[in-house]
Amino acid sequence: MFLNQNLIMLLIPLLSLPYFPTPNTYCLGFLMVIKILHNLALVCLARTPHFNRWIIVEANTYEKYWPFYQKRGGNYFPKDHLKKAVAEIEEMCNILKMEGVTVRRPDPIDWSVKYKTPDFESTGLYGAMPRDILIVVGNEIIEAPMAWRARFFEYRAYRSIIKDYFHRGAKWTTAPKPTMADELYDQDYPIRSVEDRHKLAAQGKFVTTEFEPCFDAADFIRAGRDIFAQRSQVTNYLGIEWMRRHLAPDYKVHIISFKDPNPMHIDATFNIIGPGLVLSNPDRPCHQIDLFKKAGWTIVTPPIPVIPDDHPLWMSSKWLSMNVLMLDEKRVMVDANEVPIQKMFEKLGISTIKVNIRNANSLGGGFHCWTCDVRRRGTLQSYFD
């Protein structure tokens, strides 16, 4: 949604070690209120007796990082790296407050506690990416069901905040929680070659099946009364259909797809940055881009990221450079190291707020992922016929 200035986000930065604090951002109104958390982040893997527990990791990460998960599964992320990430997110929160954003944070959760359902047992992951689990549409906060077993109970970190908004008049919806039984995952999903994945993606087949609805909120992106969603490794067609029926007739959900063999979360591939303005990843072109061109949108191609090859990105790609956070139509939070994209925004007449979160990127998200806007000012419009 494009609502004039001021946004209220939900930031959940990390803090205090050896626990992996979870950065989450919850915006609400005009200011941002910050509360420190000490959420624990683990490199986790779920287990069942006959389940290939690596298939989810392999389907959602790059092969060069598989040894990292095999070695550290069930343990904390590297302490020194987390310490640097904590400092970065704290600084980001301080800057957001200075820009007039209200920052709120979730409750501390011990993610090392093992839990068990009739279908699996697991420990948690983290509560670092509120964009993954929450989406705000109008005055409604929707909790996504998620697709990773290690994230089954991630919603618990946000419940206090959501209840507070509910008491103040917001609608609160929890999407149907999947069982995450073995049938939800294709345990024979090919992870050998990019070519295999491209072929399956073209057929709409991914590591998650259509056994039951599942989705991460980060596979949806809003543009006024139109919401765009992608079928991905964590979001299936049943999940998208649930959102479509739930939001109709006030909002229209469109399915779009990309030349991407490993889709997971849309905002480092296709990021709407203003009315009629969208960043489109040149490495993952959108198959439905004509829909936007016919509506008069400007398609902006972001420059190649400058993040070094030796910087660890355990859960994402270098294209987090385009995972920016729009505070309003004229202000964007962008990585301080990504000079090429800073210049791109300046040419568009958008002021850049430069913040370094490179170490925080390693945990799987950029500015957009580490935050979730709750309220913006402006009018609700339709940008498509």
From TrEMBL:
Family (UniProt): Belongs to the amidinotransferase family.
Enzyme class: transferase
Function: Transamidinase that catalyzes the transfer of the amidino group of L-arginine onto the amino moiety of acceptor metabolites such as glycine, beta-alanine, gamma-aminobutyric acid (GABA) and taurine yielding the corresponding guanidine derivatives. Catalyzes the rate-limiting step of creatine biosynthesis, namely the transfer of the amidino group from L-arginine to glycine to generate guanidinoacetate, which is then methylated by GAMT to form creatine. Provides creatine as a source for ATP generation in tissues with high energy demands, in particular skeletal muscle, heart and brain.
Top-level taxon of origin: Eukaryota
Swiss-Prot/TrEMBL catalytic activity: 4-aminobutanoate + L-arginine = 4-guanidinobutanoate + L-ornithine; L-arginine + glycine = guanidinoacetate + L-ornithine; beta-alanine + L-arginine = 3-guanidinopropanoate + L-ornithine; taurine + L-arginine = taurocyamine + L-ornithine
Record-level Gene Ontology MF annotations: glycine amidinotransferase activity
Name used for this protein in its record: Glycine amidinotransferase
CDD domains: amidinotransferase_AGAT-like (cd21136)
GO terms (BP aspect): creatine biosynthetic process
Subcellular location: Mitochondrion inner membrane
Gene assigned in the entry: GATM
N-terminal signal peptide: 1-18
One Gene Ontology cellular component annotation held by this UniProt entry: mitochondrial inner membrane
Taxon lineage: Eukaryota, Metazoa, Chordata, Craniata, Vertebrata
Assembly, per entry: Homodimer.
Keyword list, A-Z: Membrane, Mitochondrion, Mitochondrion inner membrane, Signal, Transferase, Transit peptide
Pathway listed: Amine and polyamine biosynthesis; creatine biosynthesis; creatine from L-arginine and glycine: step 1/2
Biological source species: Equus caballus (Horse)
Active site residues according to the UniProt entry: 216, 265, 369 (amidino-cysteine intermediate)
Enzyme Commission number, as recorded: 2.1.4.1
